[in-house]
Write a structure and sequence with these properties.
With 1021 residues, the protein is an alpha+beta fold. 24% of the residues lie in helices and 27% in strands. A ten-stranded antiparallel beta sheet has the order 19-25-26-27-28-39-34-33-30-31. The chain binds zinc ion (ZN). Zinc ion binds next to loops. Its cofactor is Zn(2+).
């Protein structure tokens, strides 16, 4: 705009304009002036052209891409990209942002070299800007932070590789509430300068509009505070333009008609409309900069339809001169906000839960599709472990690798994927992609483990003589290698791999068919083991689901679970040999089984170690919890209830559905008749089996060496013959006086304080006392009083709350019969089928309960929580001629044999990239002040972590690895905040000394490194 005299040009245009309209001059070509930049003393309306492209929702990701299944919805992202690129090439002033790399990659790989060159020029000139830049716009309530990091890294490295660019802005416009982890970790730690979104609670938004606090500086982590803050803009309404400014070809907004020879000439009216909408928004916004998100879902399929109108608006509005309109991007907008040198209010905590109107709390999706949520979490940890093993033996250029699973998991983090808010056929598509990725990753895992046991690296997979198998359906006691071996007298081998950086002792459970069994470690020592008979419930569940999921009838029928304690080194494996025992051998212990009678006051106690759980045989339920070591004793109950889902068809009669939780009534689930408890006791684990009702079966386990209770639940099929949708909860009740307060994690990371019927940021008007107090849980939930803390950890994303003092509830399953009118247009009624015979979905999962003295709960929540996320990985092999140990390496650890990571540090990524560089991410698991021993600066010795390797270069990167950390810090904008800026001292690990190579991590810090590594020697050699 330099040298261009604005004022005179505008006057000239107005004169011409008046001339044309008065005298009816011939219509002719109008060269619209779209070059306008920011004008300092005017209200600047930043027009940000965008298309919100869900990577799956009503259609699958591929159907959305190529325009398939258009009877469901006319949406074709290929059209969007083709036509947008052409529109940008047509006028160098036009701009566009693109967000979802899963779509962009699909498009990019099919373009000609000539067009690719042009697109690179568009990117370099800033006309096309990548925003957010992950594979998808991830959900913020139900993914684990490790998945969020992985999917963002994948997209960012693609952009870096193809375009040399680093996205600057977070654009989470559609997710249904916003997490603290999004702000600081997937925002500031990526190097983003700002974050924008639309959906916050309607009461919160009203207040923020009133006091002009829609734009804030968000400090998501209390541990990292201002060192990880981000400028955050909340849209005044939604992520579409103001009413009357949408221009997809079928939209009803009046286009500008500026041809004087045609009827309906409307330039003046439309300019007035534009100015009025801008002034209205300016009323609720600080500084003289406004953003209009010009687009919405799957728009710009015929891009010129939008750009033509924006060209005209920019031209005529600027001629009018009351406000200034310009083509912009969120980056330009952010820079303008920054340049204004304003002070901004500080926001802490998060934006959960989200309600878009009274009685419409979007807290149902915290649990929707619980089996899929469990599958995503299980595969997330598998992907982490598989990449470690892939790296240990060298990534294969040609053979199977872990990329397919990575891609599938990245898509699954989308805000209509793991959230459970997609249509059924789309959920099936995500699951299919994950299972295909799993199949490839399993090949990597078994061949890597085989290589390591044969002590051969970089060998072709075909040359390995060791054949290992895995059992992904172990949770339904289906494991052909462990069931069928032994029958021929042969023994079998279990390789137990530990993906964590510290050594572990943990109980392994596998199904076997014989009771004469011996378990030996690799030194030939017999290990204490225990057999637990498989119940009829387990067998029925197993047989049905093997038929449903594998399409075959399970062959063998195992008779027992075999349980024993495995010791495993960090990032390594141990080997156990299971063989048939002679009758005379001292061998496995068969569990003592009892079905206690419900006489009055008959109390059943389980637990061979410090923890004892006491059950009333009469009532068939838990009554008391005690720990003999720390002297915690309290009454405790664990029960099931259900909410009946509200019925309705629209937003006025709001139903409970895939997104929205709207309970109608609450019912406690009581045992139907007197079903006795079944108790199994032994040297490894005590179990108590409860048939809660016809469709809930629960096993509670107390392992000898641990101090928590593990609850395995099987829920479903939820009956709906009564035409009532149901949402099933487990409640854990104690006498703790928790004063309305509880804590839930943010994507598995920082715990955030919640107070019942209360919001930090506004005076909450309570109209849904149950749904409005639900929060997303990925790691756990806890509550405390002056003496004790009650913690519950989970194995997948669920919704949870504390609606009564001393009580925690988790929503574990939902089956609903009404659509909740938020667009999905399908009821959340999942089924599982054997051929055409379908019944309601059954969900199998775990939660874990512990009660600690006050101040001692964090150790378990954090360190054991990481063990829940990363379970031991098992692989099985047949042993020929009892010679396994003479021909195989029995135990392995990638780290120095004297070394173990501290229990407050997790290796969250260890992966060989295509370039051969190793990506290492280390995470401190504790917050500041959370634990007296573990909330401290800790360090990791890279030389011991990479033992036997020479690190030629170690570079600290930002979280997604697309720029050096130092470079990112240098560019970081320093925002001014309102009020007192005092905060508790923030600590961060110091720079890494290139000689010592010791990484320091402060509480809640995650540090990312690119490491160039040369092998000094082969593992195990
Ligand atoms: Zn969306």
């Amino acid at each position: 705009m330099e040298g261009f005299n604005l004022k005179h040009s505008s006057i000239l245009h107005i004169l011409l304009f008046l001339l044309f309209s008065c005298f009816g001059v011939n219509s002719k070509y109008i060269a619209y002036n779209t070059s306008q930049g920011i004008v300092g003393d005017k209200i600047n309306v930043h027009l940000v052209p965008h298309s919100h492209d869900d990577v799956g929702w009503l259609k699958t990701v591929d159907q959305y891409y190529f325009g398939g299944n258009n009877s469901i919805r006319g949406a074709c992202v290929q059209n969007v990209l083709d036509s947008v690129i052409q529109a940008l090439l047509d006028d160098k002033n036009r701009k566009f942002i693109y967000v979802e790399m899963a779509f962009f990659q699909r498009w990019w790989r099919q373009q000609s070299p000539a067009l690719k060159k042009k697109v690179k020029e568009l990117v370099n000139s800033g006309q096309l800007e990548f925003i957010n830049g992950g594979m998808c716009m991830h959900d913020e309530a139900t993914p684990h932070y490790i998945d969020l990091i992985d999917q963002t890294t994948m997209g960012h490295l693609f952009i870096k590789d193809a375009f040399g660019q680093t996205p600057r802005v977070g654009w989470q416009i559609d997710p249904f509430g916003h997490s603290a982890v999004q702000a600081y970790l997937l925002g500031a730690e990526l190097g983003f300068d700002s974050l924008y979104f639309a959906r916050i609670d309607y009461q919160d938004r009203a207040k923020r509009k009133d006091d002009k606090t829609l734009e804030v500086i968000w400090r998501g982590s209390s541990s990292l505070g201002s060192s990880s803050q981000i400028f955050t803009g909340i849209f005044p309404r939604h992520y579409d333009p103001p009413d009357g400014f949408t221009f997809e070809i079928n939209d009803v907004s009046p286009p500008i008609q500026d041809d004087v020879l045609l009827f309906d000439y409307n330039v003046k009216e439309r300019v007035n409309d534009f100015v009025a909408a801008a002034l209205a928004q300016a009323n609720g916004t600080r500084t003289n900069h406004l953003m209009w998100a010009m687009g919405t879902d799957f728009r710009y399929q015929y891009a010129v339809s939008w750009f033509r109108q924006m060209d005209k608006f920019i031209h005529y509005v600027n001629m009018d001169g009351r406000v200034n309109a310009l083509y912009s991007t969120p980056s330009i907008y952010t820079d303008a906000k920054y340049a204004a040198d304003e002070k901004w209010p500080v926001k802490t905590g998060d934006f959960f839960p989200y309600a878009d109107q009274e009685n419409a709390y979007w807290t149902g999706y915290f649990t929707s599709r619980p089996a899929f949520k469990g599958y995503v979490r299980m595969m997330s940890s598998y992907y982490l472990a598989a990449r470690q093993l892939e790296y240990f033996v060298g990534r294969s250029g040609s053979g199977p690798n872990t990329d397919v699973l990575g891609d599938a998991l990245a898509l699954a983090q989308h805000h209509d994927a793991v959230s459970g808010t997609e249509r059924q056929h789309v959920a099936a598509d995500y699951a299919l992609r994950i299972s295909m990725g799993y199949a490839k990753a399993e090949e990597v895992v078994v061949s890597s483990l085989a290589s390591l046991t044969e002590s051969r690296l970089n060998s072709s997979h075909d040359s390995l003589s060791t054949k290992l198998q895995q059992c992904p359906l172990l949770n339904i006691s289906y494991c052909p290698p462990s069931e069928s071996l032994l029958s021929n007298g042969k023994s079998f081998v279990v390789i137990v791999y530990n993906p964590l950086g510290w050594k572990r002792e943990e109980v392994v459970r596998i199904p076997v068919s014989f009771k004469e069994v011996i378990v030996q470690d690799h030194d030939g020592r017999e290990i204490v083991s225990q057999l637990l008979p498989l119940t009829n419930f387990s067998l029925n569940t197993r047989n049905y689901h093997v038929r449903a999921y594998l399409g075959v009838s399970p062959g063998n029928t195992p008779s027992y679970w075999l349980a024993f304690s495995a010791f495993v080194p960090p990032l390594g494996f141990s080997t156990y040999i299971i063989s048939r025992a002679n009758k005379t051998d001292a061998s496995v212990t068969m569990s003592a089984i009892s079905r206690p009678e419900g006489g009055s006051n008959n109390i059943v106690e389980i637990g061979q170690g410090n923890l004892k759980l006491h059950y009333s045989a009469q009532e068939g339920k838990l009554v008391h919890y005690s720990n003999s070591r720390n002297l915690v004793r309290t009454s405790a109950e664990q029960t099931y209830s259900y909410y009946s889902g509200y019925e309705g068809f629209d937003r006025v009669n709001q139903a409970s559905g895939a997104y929205v939780f709207r309970p109608n009534n609450t019912y406690t689930i009581k045992p139907e008749g007197q079903v006795p408890l079944t108790v199994m006791r032994g040297p490894v684990v005590d179990e108590i089996h409860q048939q809660i009702n016809a469709w809930i079966y629960q096993v509670t386990r107390v392992y000898k060496g641990t101090e928590h209770a593990e609850v395995e639940y099987n829920i479903g099929p939820i009956p709906v013959d009564d035409k009532v949708g149901k949402e099933i909860t487990a409640k854990i009740s104690t006498a703790l006086k928790t004063n309305k307060t509880f804590y839930t994690d943010s994507n598995g990371r920082d715990f955030i304080r919640r107070v019942r019927d209360y919001r930090e940021d506004w005076d909450l008007q309570v109209n849904q006392p149950i749904a409005g107090n639900y929060y997303p849980i990925n790691l756990g939930i806890y509550a405390k009083d002056e003496k004790m803390e009650l913690s519950v950890l989970v194995d997948r994303a669920v919704g949870g709350a504390s609606l009564v003092d001393g009580q925690i509830e988790l929503m574990l399953h939902r089956r609903l019969l009404y659509d909740d009118a938020r667009g999905v247009g399908e009821v959340l009624n999942e089924t599982v089928c054997v051929l055409k015979d379908c019944k309601g979905l059954m969900v199998n999962g775990m939660f874990y309960i512990k009660i600690d003295p006050l101040g001692e709960g964090a150790k378990w929540r954090r360190t054991f929580g990481q063990e829940i996320y990363s379970p031991l990985l098992l692989a099985f092999a047949e042993q020929d001629e009892n010679n396994w140990l003479s021909s195989h390496v029995p135990t392995f650890s990638a780290v120095d044999s004297s070394y173990s990571l501290p229990k407050n540090i997790a290796v969250v990524t260890l992966q060989e990239l295509d370039s051969g560089i190793v990506l290492l991410r280390l995470a401190h698991l504790y917050e500041t002040g959370e634990d007296k021993d573990y909330s401290v600066m800790s360090s990791v010795e890279l030389k011991k972590l990479f033992t036997g390797k020479k690190m030629t270069k170690v570079v600290e990167m930002n979280l997604s690895g697309n720029q050096e950390r130092a470079e990112m810090e240098k560019k970081r904008l320093v925002w001014k905040v309102e009020g007192s800026t005092a905060e508790t001292k923030i600590t961060r690990g110091g720079p890494i000394d290139p000689k010592k190579l010791v990484v320091e991590l402060a509480p809640m810090e995650i540090r990312t490194f690119f490491i160039s590594v040369n092998n000094l020697k082969m593992f195990g050699s």
